[in-house]
Amino acid sequence: MKNMITIFKKPNYSLLFWSSFTSTMGSIVGIAALMLYLLDRYTDQPFYAALTELMYSLPTLAVFFLVGVLADRMDRQKIAVYSDVICAILSLALMGAIYIDWMPLVFAILFLRSAVSKFFHPAQAAIIQGILTKDEYTVAAGLNQMTSSLFMLFGNALGIFIYWTVGLQGAIFVCFVTYMVSAILIRACKLEENVVLPNGRHKWTQLNVRFVANDFKDGMLYIIKNPLLVYLIIGFFVFGIVNGGLSVMPAYILKYKLAPKDYEEFMIVMGVVFGISVLIGSIVASMMAKKLKLYQMVIIGLGVSGAFVVASGYSPDMYYYLAFTALIGLGLPFVNIGIGGWLPRIVDPKMMGRVQGWITPLMMLSQSITLGVIALTFQKILSVEGLHLLVGGCLLFVGLFYMFTLPKHATEEEEGADGLENSASV
Q: Whole-prediction pTM value?
C-alpha cells in the first residue's frame, strides 16, 4: 500500500492512471449497453452480441503495423491525446447512426472507433514505462489489475443501469465525455522529451511504407531474439481466445441456460461478485508478488482460473455459477500482475511500442477468430458447456506450457540482470 501511495505522488503517473481509467470505463459502459440493446431487440439472433465484440477486436488487424511504429517514432503524448479526441467525435457519430437505426453504419463506426482507440494503449504504456523505475512496474501492474476489477465491479452494472434509465444514447454519450476527460488529463502531463520521443524526432513525411515496414520487422526480430518474450507472446495469443470467449460467455449462459427471464438482473449480480473477487485477488496477488517469483504467479493464476472456467460451464444453477465466477476472479489477477510487472523489465524502452504493436494484434487476431467462430456456431454446433470448456482448456494449456518453459528463461533473465548490476557497481 505504501508503494502505491508513493507512485501516485508522481503527478504524471496520476494523470495517466486516471486518463486510462476514464477512457476504459466509458468504453465498457458503451459496449455493455449496446450488447444488451442488441440482445433485447434481436433475441433470436445472438450473433449480434458476438458481432459487437468483434467490432472491438477485429480493427486491430487493420492498424497493427502502424500502432507500435508510431508509438516509438512519434510524440507518444500527442498520439494518446489525438486517439481520445477522435474516439470522442466518433462516439457522437455513433449516436447519430443509432438514431437513424441503420445497423451497418453502427457497426462501421464501431469498427472505426475501435481502430483509432488501438493507438492509445501502446503510447500510454510506453510513457508509463518511461516515468517509473523498474521496482515500480509490479506496483503499477497491481494498480492496473485493481482498476480492472473496479471496471468489472461497476462497469457492466453502470452500463446496464444507464441503459435502463436513459437508454443506449445516454450510454454512448458517457463514452464521449470520458474520452474527452482522458484527453484533457493526458494533455496536462509534463513529460521529458526522452519519454515521449525516445528515438528522437521524426517527421510524418519520413514514415513511408519502407520505413514502417523496416520498423515493424525490427520489432519482430527483437522479439524472436528473446526466447522469454516469444513464450510470453505465445501466451498472449491464447489469451485472445480466452478474452473472446469471456466477453460473451456470461450473457450467453445466463440468457440461454440459467436465467432466461432475469438474465439482465443476474448480469449485474455476477458483475458485482466477479468484481469483488478480482479486487480481493488483486490485493492478495500484490502482496504475494513479494514472496513469489512472477512466473510462479502466472502459472498459479492460469491453473486456478482455467479449472473453474471449465467447471462453471456445467453449473446446475445460479448459485454454483456465482461461486465458480468468484473463484475465477481470485485467480486471474495473479496472471495479469505477473505478466504486467514482468514485461517492462525485459523490454527496451525504445522498443516498447513495437513490442506492444505485435502483442495487441496477435491477441486481437485470436480474439476476432474466436468471436467469429462463436457467432457462426453458437447454438448450432457449440453449446454453452462447450464454450466454457474451450476457454478454460486454453487457460490450462497455457499454464502447463509456461510450467515447462518459463522457469528456465526467467532464471537466465534474472542472472543477466544481476550481472549488469554488478558490472555497473564495479
A: 0.65
